[in-house]
Design a protein that fits this description.
The chain is of the alpha+beta class and 695 residues long. It is 25% helix and 26% strand. Helix 2 crosses helix 12, helix 4 crosses helix 5 and helix 6 packs across helix 7.
């Protein structure tokens, strides 16, 4: 499979469809480029040729998560011309279909006639086929007027490409155009797709308008950001646009939105990713959190299934589309996540604190209670009091791989390592998951108590016991001092590779003041702090590799979670150090932070080094910018008690931050921090604002 870098290929995504192309806009076969919809590649070739040659590429401009401009020109078209006189702009939009509008401009005093043709191909490969480098033959195309239609071998999927005013030939669409002297003309390329199973068209989860024109739902937000540091402003603006492009709707309730995990490989519902994204974006887009909770509640486990690992109360890990063949062996639903279930409770509580109304909370509570019960009855595999996961059989009857080796967010097979590089064996009890479970129990108890339901005192006792036992089992020490192990392994040994997981504990309430100080010092030590962000594994560890997926790379969401925990526990200096790293890195990625990038030290590199196959855009990477901004102001809401607090970091990383339209309950607030002055305006939010100094 051809690997892609951040500058060599261009991605436009909306909903569950995306286009990955070359920098000139062409989709070239033989790699991972293509037009994808619902986990299937519907085009693997879309090549523009003018008079038999590709235009000369000049520049590419991303104009949003779902759109781009490709600028090009043609060689001189008339004898004696020294300079190009014909230029073109290829404007691409993904809107439920693929739309290319090609505007050809002629600067010469003579008209120009051109042969414009588009080479088309479709292989209907599943995203898993493409990801793993399996090649499929392109199917034949049928021509009708200005339309080419390609149909998959089973007849269940088709792609239709039209060049209005053109002529369809075998695998080509041709248009002869004349550009007037000092004038312009336009050529359109329009592609649509369809899948059907059992005679029903599958449009899930894309919302399409009547008449076949695709219109994907788009998140809207009234929040705007201005900042004296233009990098932070551009990072937040780009992140909001990218999150809008990843917006999807539940086919069972079209009013409920969630964020697809990331493009190209994970453009679907992932419980963990959707919940973290909703948490990070909550003050900017509360409807996303509410929709995500309802989407996951509908798919919460209700039975025992050893293949999918569904259990009563468990939150789904991954949802995939299509037939087993088109899914590349992936299950339609899998539940193999140890952390999504406690995170569901945490996000439900956070949404309530930001204004989820009583009726919605009451409707969610049976699912919250089921998630809490799952933690106690099913999450503890071996009865030792900790949440852990065990690895079961890896394959089903058809031989397809069914399960991940690890079920935390570091889910690669080698993601959990001892300091000497040895890979830990399951059952594995991850440190951050115990923190999530503690926070879920405490927050769940508050919800139960608020609604007058039984069990609050019991869950507080459970949480206190977990906190005490965690302190006894996880805290270890090396030459740099005490720190919590990344996990306990199958023999209940602390896995001592210093890792970023400890940063997640800061926001959970699991740690006391002294423990917070130890974690803050370790996270900002050069072995973990790369200068561009937080490494997943310390550079001093035997398993460290700056280009490893989970053992030395930098994940923006991971860094942002640590920044939020540091900021809200009063560790302003450490929070700012890590936050600055991500802000400094953002211009090198055109302000679209990728899923991950390499963990090389900033002092050794002029730029952050890309990871070769990272998703961009990726939901929680985009949302991490929103959490960074929230961390700088430490904004926390308690709508049920009519309160909102701000504790801006001192000093702020920029002179001025202005945040307009932050969503609180049914209203908004505007916040301006200018030097040491803080001004807040409340608009129908029903809260009293307290401005506090950092502890």
């Amino acid at each position: 499979m051809t690997e892609r870098g951040p500058l060599s290929e261009v991605l436009c995504v909306r909903g569950d469809a995306f286009v990955m192309s070359s920098a000139n806009g062409d989709i070239v076969p033989g790699g991972d480029q293509g037009y994808y919809d619902r986990d299937t590649r519907f085009l693997d070739r879309l090549e523009l040729r003018i008079d038999g040659r590709p235009p000369i590429h000049l520049a590419t401009v991303s104009t949003g998560g779902d759109s781009a401009l490709f600028h090009a020109c043609l060689p001189p078209t008339h004898p004696g011309e020294a300079d190009p006189t014909v230029s073109l702009v290829r404007q691409r939009v993904v809107d439920g279909g693929l739309r290319d509008r090609i505007t050809l401009r002629n600067a010469s005093p003579l008209p120009v006639t051109l042969d414009v043709h588009v080479r088309i191909g479709a292989d209907f490969a599943s995203v898993q086929d493409v990801k793993h480098g399996r090649t499929l033959e392109e199917v034949d195309a049928s021509a009708d007027g200005a339309t080419l239609r390609m149909t998959s071998g089973d007849g269940m999927q088709w792609t239709r490409v039209v060049v209005p005013g053109g002529t369809a030939e075998e695998r080509r669409l041709v248009a002869i155009v004349t550009i007037p002297a000092r004038g312009e003309t336009v050529v359109l390329i329009e592609a649509d797709t369809s899948s059907s199973h059992d005679g029903d068209e599958i449009r899930w989860p894309l919302v399409r308008a009547p008449g076949g024109t695709g219109v994907a739902s788009r998140a809207t937000t009234r929040t705007s950001v201005d900042c004296s540091d233009g990098r932070l402003r551009r990072l937040v603006d780009r992140s909001l646009r990218d999150l809008a492009s990843l917006d999807q709707r539940d086919p069972e309730a079209l009013g409920d939105r969630y964020a697809a995990a990331g493009s190209p490989w994970f453009l679907t519902l992932f419980g963990r990713d959707a919940l973290w994204t909703a948490f990070m974006a909550l003050p900017f887009d509360p409807e996303l959190a509410r929709g995500t909770l309802r989407v996951l509640a509908r798919r919460q486990g209700t039975r025992f299934d050893p293949i999918s690992e569904e259990q009563p109360g468990r939150i789904v890990h991954e949802v995939r589309f299509g037939t087993p063949e088109s899914r590349g062996g992936l299950l339609e639903r899998s539940y193999g996540s140890i952390d999504a279930t406690p995170l569901f409770v945490i996000v439900a509580h956070e949404a309530w604190r930001w204004g989820l109304d009583e009726e919605e909370l009451v409707a969610l509570m049976p699912h919250v209670e089921a998630a809490l019960t799952w933690m106690r009855e099913y999450g503890d595999v071996d009865g030792d009091g900790f949440l852990e996961y065990a690895r079961h059989a890896d394959t089903g009857d058809d031989g397809h791989v069914r399960r991940l080796a690890n079920q935390g967010w570091k889910d690669s097979g080698d993601g959990i390592r001892f300091a000497d590089g040895t890979v830990a064996g399951p059952p594995i009890a991850l440190a951050e998951v115990q923190g999530y479970a503690y926070a879920a129990a405490v927050r769940g108890a508050e919800l139960l108590e608020h609604l007058g339901r039984p069990g609050a005192a019991e869950w507080r006792r459970w949480a206190a016991t977990l906190r005490r036992r965690f302190r006894e089992a996880y805290w270890i020490e090396d030459a740099l001092g005490p720190y919590p192990a990344i996990a306990l392994d199958e023999h209940k040994r602390p896995v001592d590779g210093p890792a970023s997981n400890m940063g997640h504990l800061l926001m959970t309430g699991m740690l006391d003041t002294a423990e917070i100080a130890h974690v803050a010092r370790r996270l900002t030590h050069p072995s973990l702090a790369s200068g561009w962000g937080l490494r997943t594994l310390a550079a001093t560890s035997g398993g460290f590799n700056a280009l490893s997926y989970h053992c030395g790379s930098v994940w923006p969401h991971d860094t942002a979670i640590a920044v939020w925990g540091l900021a809200r526990t009063g560790r302003a200096a450490e929070a700012l150090m890590l936050a600055r790293g991500l802000v400094d890195a953002s211009p090198w990625f055109d302000y679209r932070l990728p899923e991950l990038f390499a963990g090389f030290a900033a002092e050794d590199t002029v730029t952050p080094i890309p990871y070769p196959a990272a998703c961009r855009p990726q939901a929680w990477a985009s949302a991490s910018a929103l959490l960074l901004l929230r961390s700088m102001l430490v904004i926390e809401a308690d709508v049920p008690h009519g309160a909102l607090t701000l504790r801006p970091l001192v000093p702020l990383p920029c002179e001025r931050i202005e945040l307009t339209g932050l969503r609180v309950a049914d209203g908004t607030i505007d916040v301006t921090v200018d030097g040491g002055a803080v001004a807040v305006q409340v608009h129908d939010a029903g809260v009293q604002v307290a401005i506090e100094a950092q502890r």
